[in-house]
Write the structure tokens for this entry.
Amino acid sequence: MSDATMVVAAGGAGSPSRLRAFLRRLRSGDEIAHLITLIFASAIFLITFLLVYELWRNSALSRHRFGLDFLFTRTWDPVFEHFGALPFVFGTVVTSALALLMAIPLGVGAAIFLAELAPSRISDAVTFCIELLAAVPSVIYGLLGIFVLVPILRTTVMPFLKATLGFLPLFQGPIYGVSLFAAGVVLAIMIIPFIISISREVLLAVPAEQREGALALGATKWESTWKVVVPYARVGIMGSILLALARALGETMAVTMVIGNDPKIAASLFAPGYSIAAVIANEFSEATSDLYIHALIELGLVLFLLTIILNGLARLLILATTRKATAHA
Amino acid sequence: MSFRTAWRKSVNAVMLSLTALCALLAVSLLLFILGYLVWYGGKSLSWAFFTQLPKPVGETGGGMANAIVGSGKLLLLAALVGVPIGFMAGVYLAEFGGPTVAFFIRYTTDLLNGVPSIVMGIFAFTIVVLPMKHFSALAGGLALGVMMIPIAVRSTEEFLRNVPQTLREGAMALGASKWKAVATVVVPAAARGILTGIILDLARVAGETAPLLFTAFGNRFWSSGWNQPTASLPVMIYTYAISPYDDWHRQAWAAGLVLLALVLLTNIGARYLLPKKAHVARG
């Protein structure tokens, strides 16, 4: 690319020299190599297009039968073939929101520690541990969820919440252990590493002058961090939270194993629920009729669109802050 | 010292310690996970786990030899799909791409990276399982392979960009054409990084369960070919963990330990293999 423009600049913009340059590169194999790598790169477009097309095509029966009502209907009845996504959308949204509620303070707090306070040796070591945490497969989180977390929640945490905050409808009703609450906790644990590592990077990108300015004005370390550095990095931190949210929405295994898999909409967090990803995982290989499969694929389409929108937004936000930081530096 | 200053100083101390506590909590999560898996998994791990087939329901003992081999087969298929596309696209982005096309490819790659794994499973289901009318290792391998692409592209591009510009110029000054410079100088210079990136990518998809549930499905015996339902470690962990049998729970822990050890050791190994992040010659 660049040598093409060089040649053109040197020999005037005449098309014969451009053609000659092209032929030279063709003979030397550059154009062919370019073309081959481009073909492989284009495969990414093709796969993405095919993914959307297949999801769209294979949900046609359900889309035509239920229309937009699909998203707002509470019944999920494979026997009478009446499918509504509302309980799953509800479960997905509630568990993800709960996870964010728990993960944001912890994640941002830890990121502040790693970016602003910790000596670089400790910060690097901890960050590596966080990266390892992010690499743990979700089925392992599910395994620990079933056998360790759910029993702890059932015997101690949930009775405690019920005794202290039981006047709220959120913490009422029988305690089974498997519940929206348990799914929220597992999700929180799973997304904390993402919030930490991206927020840390965003915080590190804040120019040092910002901190020095605040400190020079007499601010304490905390004041300079909380009132200057964090607001400066706010947009990027929002981005990390959106990325984590996208991950929580699409998370399948760990949620399936602890949410209780019951398509109900209950006010209590202690009640079992169901999520979009979980119902696909559980019922897909048992779905008998075409309409059933199409309804499940439409759920996949809904999930796909949700995560794509969130991801796009998150990347824009993160890009905006890191750009701003480098522009100032 | 005025009251106001004392107050500000104590807020400072309290909040800073709270952030340290957050970090400590996050790290202790890793220790908890490791501890539980080593404890429960270690108790149940035996030689038979690696060499025997699962026993029929009700009998104790047996192992997951078929799932270990199955996971290997799926990863091989995944690499066949993901590595060529990921590597070549990475080379395109780093060496040949013009600004517009490269932007769209990067954007699409990020988009693909954000697709939930269960949706990847649906994708492989619709293009392999539906036409062939049965579950197969091929479908599972395809799902995992597509999931590998985004990270493979990104790490290849990153490591190629870290190769100093002077190396390219040197090769071309010696008369090499651009592709020769890329193939014989630039790629070999970045080979270690690229390879490590790909191995990490493999370790990541090795733990994926959701995309395999209705593509590779599962199998309690050796699968007789690439075209048959195939067992894999993550799916075995899932089915065993949600089963009502104690012996199966023990095996799930053992399989969990094996999978976790595989993933974490790969990640730790990669940290030592990777060249120190050299942010030289970026422009």
Residues 1-13 of chain A have pLDDT under 50 and may be disordered. The domain at 75-328 of chain A is CATH 1.10.3720.10 (MetI-like fold).
